[in-house]
Amino acid sequence: MLMNLLLRKWISISLGFILLFVILFTSLYIYLSKDLPSLEMIYFYKPARTTYVLDRNGEVVYEFFTEKREPVVLDSISPKLQKAFITLEDKRFYKHFGIDILRFIKAAFINLKKGKFTQGASTITQQLARNMFLTFEKTIERKLKEIILAFRIEKAFKKDEILERYLNLIYFGEGVYGVKAACKYFFNKSPKDVTWAEAALLAGIPGNPNFYSPFKNPEIAKKRRDFVLKILYKNGIIDEKTYKEAIEEALPQKKEEEKKYKKAGRYYFEEVRKYINSLYGEDFLYKEGVNIKLAMDLKLQEIAEKIIDSLLPVSENKAREYHKKKGYKKADSLYLQVALLAVDVETGGVLALVGGRNFLESQFNRAIQAKRQVGSSFKPFVYLAGIHSGIFPGDPVEDLPYVLEDDGTGKPWKPRNFDDKFLGLITVRDGLAHSRNLATLHILERIGPESVIEFARRAGIKEYISPFLSIALGSASLSLWDMVQGYLTIANMGVRKEMHLIEEIETRDGTIIEKFSNKPASVFDKKEVYILIDMMKSVFDYGTASKASYYGFKGIAGGKTGTTDNYTDAWFIGFTPKILCGVWVGFDSVMTIYDKATGAVLALPIWVNFIKKANKILGIPDTLDFEKPEGIVNVKICIETGELAREFCPKTREEIYIKGKEPKVLCKKHLKKDKSFKKYKRKF
Q1: pLDDT value, residue 36
Q2: What is the DSSP letter of 172?
Q3: Residue 201's pLDDT is what?
Q4: CA–CA separation, 406 and 78 (whole Å)
Q5: pTM of the entire predicted model
Q6: Is 516 helix (H, G, I), strand (E, B) or coil?
Q7: Which of these, 581, 571, 573, 570, lies nearest to 613 by C-alpha position?
Q8: Distance CA 399, CA 438 (A)
Q9: How far apart are CA 506 and CA 532, in angstroms?
Q10: In whole angstroms, what is the distance from residue 523 CA to residue 348 CA?
Q11: 590-595 own/partner pairs: CB under 8 Å, 24+ apart
Q12: How far apart are CA 618 and CA 344, in angstroms?
């Protein structure tokens, strides 16, 4: 009776303790689990991946990442690498259910004996749980959460799936995550091609990535690698011969990082970053691991920057000397800036973009963000509007003084030419070729500034332009991007195509997220634009860009120089049938560069050097000309009158017209031989 009573009491107490333990365990489990991810979250978890930026030739030119990682399936990972990690980290990986009880008890005994955490017992599953969702702090709470997560992971995935995720997640130091990125970084090879020595080296690094790095501590790294090889040998994974050969294998040597990731295209990539961030968010760019294909040609981008680096310091030294003579105390610190945009004429894709001399010193993109007075580089839009209104290259125009009694401030406006001279009656072609301000102004007065602004708008210039007569002289402040966009429409014979940096964005599985599709719009008459291009070719032949041949340019191109008052801004924008390139040079603050620092002196040499090398790389022949549309006729005219040439006209020229609009009347001025012909001179 007494025994039964005691037994029942003992059973009650035992059940009470069991119930209390269950309640405490359940409460602890609930408490620890409240912040842990669900099975669904674990299953769909994706580690951050590297986003690759590729140029138009498919070459990787930049990377965006928080964790440099390139996922790889288990079948593409060498069995050597798999066995090295399993043998070192978790020998019973394929036998346990998330934790290794025997290893856990052994580690707990050692830690209790020493009174601190010195021995780890985490399985590969536990390490995966920690890397996915937990911190690395050594606390009992974190360890218990790690165990719970390990159970959940084992429930969500098969063993091979766990191993694959683990090998893609682990950190190898210096921003490198996962075995594929690690193999590329340390050995420049695929994870399926590693040797036993390389597998052992990689398996040993995650224990302390910086300490065991072969690039930072080669001696320590070798000892760690050989230690792992010995474990592999003792566990029968490799034989003695393989072991001895492996410990004799040399460690990898760090190669110099490619400069293209350091410098070339940084302004370009920054614009791409800003665009992606604004549209998709920062996590998309740094974690999704997409491929961004650019219109950039890396070779042309590098060439552009090298040319600028070689030519601009010469101009900068001249500027410093000029300002020293003017008494400017900080002349030695003057820093000349530059912007360059090169575009594929046929597609509108930006081949190269330079927003300044040094991205690390200044992220301000002068090709896109800076708005500077454009000077005479704006004149083609005046002449295009003039052609549309019936003014042709052979027509006479007055290069004579012009006075506006009131410029809006109560003062008279007296614009001048660059050389402070007046040539009298000249042809429209010569007015553009020699960039005669007064001749252009007389044309603008006839057609009206509103008409020119409308043509600039249709060409693609988006910035506001004030409808004043001074736009004939380039008073408008515009970005290089806007100007190049406008010229692109001219280069495409009046068809507007949008300039763009990004061709397409795709996921790793090839799904296209975004693809640029140009929608060409015919905004000008092809024949009128062809006449303008023919006039702009004269800028090279004998006009303000005639020194292009001196710099070595032998191709066929149209273009226009631009120089602002007091030589504060130097421009040159020009194009061949294939490539359009715009260059701006100046100081960030609006100040004189130096006396006679024109677009032809500063910007043109950069343009010529770039186009020459670009043509060579792309295989574009110098003889390639612009396609002549139907409806263009050539007529011999008298330069003085613009009428059909007679036998006695002292100066004649073949000029182009739209059929039906060519001059019909013979020159009235030179009906017979002019006795003053020998004295007739004209300098251009």
Answers
A1: 57
A2: -
A3: 95
A4: 83
A5: 0.83
A6: coil
A7: 581
A8: 5
A9: 41
A10: 16
A11: 590/372, 592/322, 592/566, 592/567, 592/568, 593/315, 593/319, 593/322, 593/336, 593/567, 593/568, 594/318, 594/319, 594/321, 594/322, 594/323, 594/567, 595/322, 595/567
A12: 11
* Interval 594-646: pLDDT, tens: 999 999 999 999 999 999 999 999 999 999 999 999 999 999 999 999 999 99
DSSP secondary structure of 576-592 = -SSEEEEEEEE-SSS--
pLDDT band, very low/low/confident/very high, at 27 (cuts 50, 70, 90):
very low
CA atoms within 13 A on the CB side of 270: 21
Residue 459 phi/psi, 5° resolution? Answer: -70, -20
Whether 475 and 327 have beta carbons less than 8 Å apart is answered as no
**Is 50 exceeded by the pLDDT of residue 260?**
no
Task: Indicate the burial class of 260 (C-beta count within 10 angstroms; 0-12, 13-18, 19 or more).
Answer: middle
Mean pLDDT, rounded, for 537-544 = 97
Please tell me the number of Cα atoms within 13 Å of 142 on its side-chain side. Answer: 12
Q: 3-state SS of 590-619?
A: CCCCCCCCCHHHHHHHHHHHHHHHHHHHHC
Concatenating the DSSP letter of every residue in 41-71 gives HHHT----BPEEEE-TTS-EEEEE-SSEE--
- CA-to-CA distance for 249 and 232, rounded, in angstroms? 16
DSSP track, 440-464: HHHHHHHH-HHHHHHHHHHHT--S-
| DSSP helix/strand/coil, 35 | coil
Note the pLDDT tens digit of each residue in 385-412: 999 999 999 999 999 988 876 545 567 7
User: Mean pLDDT over residues 137-162, rounded?
Assistant: 72
What percent of the chain is helix, strand and coil (3-state, nearest 5)? 45, 15, 40
| Planar angle of CA 72, 165, 73, nearest 5 degrees | 25
pLDDT confidence of residue 111: 57
Token pair belonging to 100: 């290794």
Q: Which residue has the higher pLDDT, 33 or 462?
A: 462
Angle, to 10 degrees, between the axis of helix 218-234 and the axis of helix 79-89? 90
> What's the pLDDT score for residue 156?
79
DSSP structure class, residue 288: B
Phi, psi dihedral angles at 413 (to 5 degrees): -110, 120
**Cβ pair 642, 631 in contact under 8 A:** no
Alpha carbons within 13 angstroms on the beta-carbon side of residue 641 total 19
CA angle 565, 570, 574 (to 5 degrees): 130
Q: What is the DSSP letter of 668?
A: S
A 10 A CB-CB count for 201 gives: 29
24 burial via Cβ count (<10 Å: 0-12, 13-18, 19+): exposed
- The CA-CA-CA angle for residues 478, 598, 577, to 5°, reads 65
For the segment 85-102, what is each residue's pLDDT rounded down to a tens digit? 999 888 888 888 767 667
Beta strands in 148-298 (DSSP E): 176-177, 291-294
d(CA 86, CA 362) in angstroms, rounded, equals: 49
Strand partners, 504: 293, 515
pLDDT digits (tens, 9 = 90+) for 102-122: 766 665 566 555 555 545 568
